[in-house]
């Protein structure tokens, strides 16, 4: 196993990259065009997309079609679910996750970002558009905060659609200044952020094939591809017990069925026996594939398709966990967690019903108790049992779910201990799992639910 | 000896059962006709079992309410002997629609009397049905003035889209939609329901509605095509049941829903949260805090869950009644939430009682309130 991993290390570095940003910033188009320029998409297919999109009167969406594959997405011109693709740069192999920008699909975006190591934040440079995305309630802001809270530390900001403002240097500087300040506030380190001016539609400054005199007159920096190549390598915990969060389940070829997801920790080989939680079934691994190519083993950080046998497909759900049978995950219906509130409009009290986003799970949860309010920077307890929590506070709370959820403590597994809370379409808090608690019996809550 | 003063009531619709459930308390007497198995032994010693319809009066010991079937089941000891049933024998009364029952209490408090007034109020409110969905998850609910009943929860896994393999995704989606349509056909009675809400984030609702009506034409489901105008599409942030709260607040629905209890409750709770945001000292929750505010005559609006009045403990019930009466005496407004609505559920989580105050009262740090 170790040998295999060393062999892998000798090859190019693996990175999972998510593309985020406000709706219509041009995320899919930018990435579609990048894939095309890198030769991942052949000309014949691209030509077909161009013809078909023109027929629908949406010629400018041709590149987005590379990633937006369902009819619904193409017809509406909006990405709705995470699209996955893969490309190589001189030094890296990148798994690309294209996130939807529309605010209704933030749950999908969270799922994608939870699997990513690094991110590209796409902003629209067009007059007025950047401002809409950046204002309070815009997704540029929300996505950036979400990504940071979900553990993404390195960020490229692609200032897109520069062609619509005639490659104006002043506008570019203006945007980078505003965004840079904001991103630092959110918690990104200054030298982990970089800015790239580009145009997804015309393809300028993606890989450097298309010259643009207006840009070259003032910009001497790297292209998007070069910048992606400069991402720092992320260390993976392959020595920890195996954990994979199921993102998708489908019937593949042959026996059994396949699940996909990112291996969070550990490694896996065909023939291994794994435990599926929360259902508790024991399964055998039949095959492993990364990007449709089968591999003899897979490690933490890989996006892998695992073919398994030994259980009914109906008992496994998106959000289920595959893990090492000798050290299973914790299963909890009530947890204690540390949360940091965002800019929320209404105060949070106990009894608040929220949606709990964790890896690829979305589950309803209730805040059962406000334990204490903490000082944001020192972590000291300011007040025990506060009456309510308002914006930007930090606190320890207890959450309860309707059914058991598999999770890990933040102190044991960083990636598996993070979650987000949302309420009526807004992200209200980011949290870390501190402790798994015994659930109190449902009976003392009275007859409040109708089963 | 207590004096039981009784009231005769006839439940006419399922909703009335809910009211009855909120009225009957442990220790009350209940008289109704019922069916009882009676064993008779003939002179020769052979035993025969007959079912007889008889009128029984019992002293209530346990009360069960089935939200799915809207049936109220009350168990207790017989307190009026007749030819079939001995004194003190246990019997369970199933209250039935359109059958008279008499309820006796030795003390009728204001909340119980209000409840009877409310139950007898003949003004019809709009009955609603709602389908709250997101990809892979849907809830079909019926909303009556005092109840939100979850009729079906549909949860399926839909394979994600992947390169060149959209077929499984589309197949999963149609299967999911078919299940919802079946649930709608089974549970929504279009004679009563005035409006069916279809709520979801994104485009799922549009896609579903389109699919449903094309299928309705194809399969000749008259009931759907005839009632097409009753379907309303609304935005919600998720497919979970508590999103119903935002759905009801949608301004485009206001004229259709005007003054349904569900909506006024949602609004009242919202006002409470607004107050908590703007001036935390003018909003309080938890029994102790609210009691203190009542003593200071500070309560302007009292939000209280009807769950609290169903308490088995007479002392507890009295404590809550005292709060309600205290608020009314001082000209405050009392809103009794139904614990079956989503807003009531949330209030229930928030200790069941909350108040918007006339003037700020600063809470001391003796926040030793225990969870209810």
TrEMBL record, chain A:
Under PANTHER family, the record lists:
TRANSLATION FACTOR (PTHR23115)
The lineage's top-level taxon is Eukaryota
Which terms are listed as keywords in the entry? Cytoplasm, Elongation factor, GTP-binding, Hydrolase, Nucleotide-binding, Protein biosynthesis
Q: Does the keyword Repeat apply?
A: no
What are the residue boundaries of the Tr-type G domain, all occurrences included? 12-238
- Which Gene Ontology cellular component terms are annotated? cytoplasm
Protein name in UniProt: Elongation factor 1 alpha-like protein
Matching Gene3D superfamilies: P-loop containing nucleotide triphosphate hydrolases, Translation factors
Q: What InterPro entries would the database entry show?
A: EFTu-like_2 (IPR004161), GTP-eEF1A_C (IPR054696), P-loop_NTPase (IPR027417), T_Tr_GTP-bd_dom (IPR000795), TRAFAC_GTPase_members (IPR050100), Transl_B-barrel_sf (IPR009000), Transl_elong_EF1A/Init_IF2_C (IPR009001)
Q: Which reaction does it catalyse?
A: GTP + H2O = GDP + phosphate + H(+)
Its main subcellular localisation, reduced to a broad class, is cytoplasm
Entry GO MF terms? GTP binding; GTPase activity; translation elongation factor activity
Q: Where in the cell is it found?
A: Cytoplasm
State the family named in the UniProt similarity comment for this chain: Belongs to the TRAFAC class translation factor GTPase superfamily. Classic translation factor GTPase family. EF-Tu/EF-1A subfamily.
**Pfam families in alphabetical order:** GTP-eEF1A_C, GTP_EFTU, GTP_EFTU_D2
UniProtKB/TrEMBL annotation, chain B:
**Which NCBIfam families does the record match to this protein?**
pelota
Tell me where on the tree of life, at the top rank, the source sits.
Eukaryota
- Xref: Pfam families: eRF1_2 (PF03464), eRF1_3 (PF03465), Pelota_N (PF26356)
Q: Could you tell me where this protein is found in the cell?
A: Cytoplasm
User: What's in the keyword line of the UniProt record?
Assistant: Cytoplasm, Metal-binding
Q: What's the family?
A: Belongs to the eukaryotic release factor 1 family. Pelota subfamily.
Gene Ontology annotations of biological process type: nonfunctional rRNA decay; nuclear-transcribed mRNA catabolic process, no-go decay; nuclear-transcribed mRNA catabolic process, non-stop decay; ribosome disassembly; RNA surveillance
InterPro entries noted in UniProt: eFR1_2_sf, eRF1_2, eRF1_3, eRF1_Pelota-like_N, Pelota/DOM34_N, Pelota_N, Ribosomal_eL30-like_sf, TF_pelota
What's an example of a GO molecular-function annotation for this chain? Answer: metal ion binding
Q: Which residues form a coiled coil?
A: none
Q: What is this protein called?
A: Protein pelota homolog
Where is this protein chiefly located? cytoplasm
Which residues are in the eRF1/Pelota-like N-terminal domain? 1-121
GO CC terms on record? cytoplasm
Role according to the record: Component of the Pelota-HBS1L complex, a complex that recognizes stalled ribosomes and triggers the No-Go Decay (NGD) pathway. In the Pelota-HBS1L complex, pelo recognizes ribosomes stalled at the 3' end of an mRNA and engages stalled ribosomes by destabilizing mRNA in the mRNA channel.
Per its UniProt record, the required cofactor names are: a divalent metal cation
On whether Metal-binding is a keyword of this UniProt record, the answer is yes
């Amino acid at each position: 196993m170790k040998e295999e991993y060393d062999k892998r290390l000798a090859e190019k570095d693996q990175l999972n990259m998510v593309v985020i940003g406000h709706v219509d910033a041009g995320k899919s188009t930018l990435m579609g065009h990048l894939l095309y320029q890198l030769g991942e998409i052949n000309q014949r297919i691209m030509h077909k997309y161009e013809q078909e999109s023109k027929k629908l009167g949406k010629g400018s969406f041709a590149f987005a079609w590379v990633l937006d594959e369902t009819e619904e997405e193409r017809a509406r011109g909006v990405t709705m679910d995470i699209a996955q693709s893969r490309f190589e740069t001189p030094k890296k192999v990148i798994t690309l996750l294209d996130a939807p920008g529309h605010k209704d699909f933030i749950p999908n975006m969270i799922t994608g970002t939870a699997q990513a190591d690094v991110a590209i934040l796409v902003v629209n440079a067009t007059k007025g558009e950047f401002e809409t995305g950046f204002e309070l309630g815009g997704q540029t802001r929300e996505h950036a905060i979400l990504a940071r809270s979900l553990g993404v530390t390195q960020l490229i900001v692609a200032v897109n659609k520069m062609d619509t403002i005639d490659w104006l240097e002043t506008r570019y500087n203006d945007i980078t200044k505003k965004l840079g300040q904001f991103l630092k506030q959110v918690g990104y380190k200054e030298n982990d952020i970089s800015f790239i001016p580009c145009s997804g539609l015309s393809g300028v400054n993606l890989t450097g094939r298309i010259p643009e005199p207006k840009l070259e007159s003032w910009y001497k920096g790297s292209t998007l591809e070069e910048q992606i190549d400069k991402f720092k390598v992320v260390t993976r915990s392959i020595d920890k017990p195996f954990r994979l969060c199921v993102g998708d389940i489908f019937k593949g070829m042959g026996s059994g069925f396949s699940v996909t997801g990112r291996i969070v920790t550990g490694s896996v080989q065909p023939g291994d026996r794994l435990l599926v939680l929360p259902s508790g079934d024991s399964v055998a691994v039949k095959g492993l594939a990364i990007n449709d190519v089968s591999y003899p083993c897979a490690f933490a950080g890989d996006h892998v398709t695992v073919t398994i046998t030994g259980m009914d497909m109906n008992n496994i759900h998106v959000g289920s966990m595959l893990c090492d049978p000798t050290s299973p995950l914790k299963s909890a219906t009530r947890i204690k967690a540390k949360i940091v509130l965002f800019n929320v409009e209404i105060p949070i009290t106990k009894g608040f019903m929220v949606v709990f986003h964790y890896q690829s799970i979305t589950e309803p949860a209730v805040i059962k108790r406000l334990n204490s309010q903490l000082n944001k920077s020192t972590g000291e307890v300011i007040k025990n049992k506060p009456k309510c929590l308002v914006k930007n506070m930090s606190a320890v709370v207890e959450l309860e779910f309707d059914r058991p959820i598999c999770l890990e403590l933040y102190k044991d597994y960083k990636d598996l201990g993070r979650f987000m809370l949302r309420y009526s379409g807004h992200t209200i808090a980011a949290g870390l799992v501190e402790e798994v608690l015994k659930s109190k019996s449902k009976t003392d809550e009275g007859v409040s639910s109708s089963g | 000896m207590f004096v039981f003063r009784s009231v005769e009531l006839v439940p006419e619709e399922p909703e009335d059962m809910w009211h009855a459930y909120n009225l009957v308390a442990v220790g009350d007497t209940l008289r109704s006709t019922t069916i009882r198995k009676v064993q008779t032994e003939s002179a020769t010693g052979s035993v025969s079992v007959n079912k007889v319809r008889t009128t029984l009066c019992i002293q209530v010991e346990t009360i069960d309410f089935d939200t799915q079937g809207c049936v109220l089941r009350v168990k207790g000891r017989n307190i009026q002997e007749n030819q079939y049933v001995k004194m003190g024998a246990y019997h369970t009364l199933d209250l039935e629609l359109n059958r008279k029952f008499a309820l006796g209490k030795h003390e009728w408090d204001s909340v119980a009397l209000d409840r009877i007034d409310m139950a007898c109020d003949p003004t019809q409110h709009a009955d609603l049905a709602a389908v709250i969905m997101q990809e892979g998850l849907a809830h079909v609910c019926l909303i009556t003035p005092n109840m939100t009943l979850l009729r079906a929860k549909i949860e399926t896994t839909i394979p994600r889209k992947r390169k060149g393999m959209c077929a499984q995704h589309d197949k999963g989606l149609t299967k999911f939609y078919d299940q919802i349509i079946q649930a709608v056909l089974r549970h929504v009675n279009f004679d009563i329901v005035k409006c069916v809400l279809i709520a979801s984030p994104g485009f799922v609702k549009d896609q579903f509605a389109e699919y449903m009506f094309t299928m309705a034409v194809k399969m000749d489901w008259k009931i759907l095509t005839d009632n097409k105008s009753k379907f309303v599409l609304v935005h919600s942030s998720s497919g979970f049941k508590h999103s119903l709260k935002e759905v009801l607040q949608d301004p485009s629905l206001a004229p259709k829903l005007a003054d349904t209890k569900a909506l006024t409750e949602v609004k009242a709770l919202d006002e409470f949260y607004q107050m908590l945001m703007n001036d935390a000292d003018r909003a309080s929750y938890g029994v102790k805090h609210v009691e203190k505010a009542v003593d200071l005559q500070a309560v302007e609006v009292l939000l209280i869950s009807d769950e609290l009045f169903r308490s088995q403990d007479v002392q507890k019930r009295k404590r809550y009644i005292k709060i309600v009466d205290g608020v009314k005496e001082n000209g405050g407004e009392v809103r009794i939430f139904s614990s079956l609505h989503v807003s009531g559920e949330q209030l229930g989580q928030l200790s069941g009682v909350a108040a918007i105050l006339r003037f700020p009262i600063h809470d001391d740090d003796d926040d030793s309130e225990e969870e209810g």
